[in-house]
Amino acid sequence: LQGIVQAYKSGITLQGNTTSLGRWDFSGSFFFSISAITTIGYGNLSPSTAAGRIFCIVFALFGIPLNLVLLNEIGQLMLLGVQHCACRLEEVFHWQNKASFLMKTCALVTGLLLFLLLPPLLFSDKEGWSYEEGFYYSFITLSTIGFGDYVIGMNPDRTYPSWYKNVISLWILFGMAWLALVIKFCINLLE
């Protein structure tokens, strides 16, 4: 077993009827599904049979458009929340443009904290990465670049809590929606 783990750490992937170090439990499968429909595609997990590959294609054909609809809805809800708060501030304090600017700034700072600045602390604790590595992983993941050089829950020397991959999967969905809003805001500024 030690030789298999060492080979895995060196980047060698075993073919055949293996459990792949437990990655196909519910959390691992959910994480794989999220990385597929968000088009992150880390490259560390993939179907190894023809039937699995065909299923993955069909799953992605339906999952990617549905995910785009979901991300759009989440983003719109976030935007509605910010706009609602700005309207309330305008009513209470009789601020015109200040309330909108304040709420956009608060949404940006809150999103930076929740999606880019605080998650690296969790990754440092659970993965043993440095803060910089965790921040890099956060941005590469949420921007859907997904190089695969850093992927959560893959170190065979570590024990991960059962909630970990599920929480990270939700973080990816909400973080992508937030980052899409930020990118849209930047595009509007540039135009």
From TrEMBL:
Entry's Gene Ontology BP terms: stabilization of membrane potential
The keyword Cytoplasm is annotated on this UniProt entry: no
Swiss-Prot/TrEMBL keywords: Ion channel, Ion transport, Membrane, Potassium, Transmembrane, Transmembrane helix, Transport
Domain Potassium channel: 20-78, 113-190
Keyword field contains Transmembrane: yes
Family: Belongs to the two pore domain potassium channel (TC 1.A.1.8) family.
Protein name, entry field: KCNKH protein
The species this protein was found in: Mystacornis crossleyi
